[in-house]
Amino acid sequence: MDAAAGRRQQDLVTLIVSNMRAAIAHDQESVTVWDDAVTKTAERDADWLETNLGSWMHTYFQHDAAFVVAADDTDIYKFVAAESQAVAPDEFRQAYLPLITRLRERLLSGDTTGVTDRVLSIGESDLKIVDGRPAIVSVKPIVSDTGELEQQPGQENLHVAVRFLDGTFPSIIGSQYQFEDMHFTRLVDDRDHADVPLISSKGETIGYLCWTPFRPGATVRNETLPALGVGLLCIFGATSILGSLLFRRSERLSASRAELQHLAHHDVLTGLANRASFNEALENKMKAALPEDVHGVLFVDLDRFKVVNDTFGHPAGDRLIAMVAKRLREVLPDAIIGRIGGDEFTALLRRFTEQDLVKAAEDVVRAMEQPFDLDGAMATIGASVGAASTAGKADPTELMRQADIALYHAKAAGRNRYALFGEHMDQLLRARRELENDLRHAVEMKTQIETHYQPVYSATTGEMCSVEALVRWRHPKKGLIGPDIFIPIAEETGLITALGTIVLDDACATISAWDDLPVSVNASAAELKLDSYPLRVLSTLAWHNIHPNRLEIEITESLLLDGSGQCERTIGALRKAGVRFAIDDFGTGYSSFGRVQDVSIDRIKIDKVFVDELSRSGNKGIIAGMISMARAKGLEITAEGVETDEQRKTLGALGCDHLQGYLLSRPLTRGQLSSFQRKAASVKS
Known about the structure:
By secondary structure, the chain is of the alpha/beta class. Helices cover 48% and strands 21% of the residues. α18 links the parallel β20 and β21. The radius of gyration is 33 Å and the shape is elongated.
């Protein structure tokens, strides 16, 4: 009995240590497979690294130390918990450098051994002695989660996590699994203790986890010896006590095993099926399906989860994910629901009609539209849903692929909606991806991207007073592609920042030929949220020897709703340097006159939709109200889309400062603008 109980305890300790190694690597992937991590480590953003790769990993996952190591094996960042500060830095390096060397060799060779649906990147881990202390040391590469940020193999920054197996670790395990006096020792304890050796990948024993073993046989002996003198009745009683002890102990061991089994198949945060468990359930259902059985899959992607995570922090994000899981259970009570990524969920529906699938997708979208209460702060996210269905036996991978394609179309159509898979989607997706690749090539080479300039005229004198820089894409096969097509693609793929840099540089180079010609450029939300954006703008102006007051940056009304305040800080920094700001397409977005008052801007640009409707009753009053408001705030007013002489006269009479539109001039290339300026100068002289 003692031997059997001892073997069970040794098996359990071995399983715990093995699971801990896998869990640490999995913990790392929550922050290392992430575009932001690639960018921020490259920028050496110490505050970001401290918040996301250091102290947060200690607080949330109890890692004792964390390091970010560059390609030349120097430390970009290091974090050591207070209780481990006595360990010398060189001791850590001696432990993790061999693992880093092996991992870089694998990255260079393209080795993907071990990567699965559950394991997102390769890694190396081992049991090590760090300054005399046993530890699990795990190394993971910091890579893109979208695949859009390419890195040279072997040159990736690496994340190192260290978890010591002495200190509080043995006592925590002992408390959770009822191991008496569990502790770590370098040498085997006396015979009164059971032990499990901690063996490194080289076969070296670095120490032992020891504990006082559970001895049911000894318990029987000790409890029955006093009872021998009182006869068989006492023996029977002692045997009953033993049975009870064994039963309760067996129940506890069974419960522990059941808990480990549950954790292996379910998401810890939500209790939903994890990716592997969901895929297994889907495969089993597909194999057992009858010809008349119809199955459907929903792919659910939260639309603005990252904003909530960045604004309120990771703990709030975790609570939000748990609340989303609860709503999905309420909306889809009969479905198998899984969490397959940070903000991605799947659901398997059985025995339903196409109308049921549509209703399920609609219900999910409506449920996610409702605000979530995060300790008094109301967060609104929304969700995009892709749906696909099949009858009878089918390939589960193909069904998942179809749902994923439908999700892509739902997101491309504006998010916060659903889409059902159709055969036409494959062709549209291929065309879209081809256009994405072509745009990425065009931005990298800079040969197909053109900047055109549309003159802006004084409403009173009729003279050209500035130009607006407009980006164009001249595709070698498809010809000139409109910005309404490629700008959304650039925003979605992260190319918008590089595109904005090209336009800004070309605009500054163009106006440098004149002493006083101002230019305006458009800026996206992604650009204004970058801490480096003000420096980039001012550096470009200085390079071309242009005073900041000759540049005007046009933003959309939606940027005024930036909850983080980063956009307003960017605007404030640039306006302090002299750069001017305008709200483009005023009146078509979310802003109000009161909101405009809260943000420092210099101009509003009345959208073409209001100019087109000038002849209708009441629309003249709307524009007059806009102008009156702007005048009261000391703002300048430009009207866009002026195409008739009647519009020009009416807008001038209403008090617009400047006019822009095809009536006055179409957008011009740089060469055409130079000729236009020379002609204007000759006419004046």
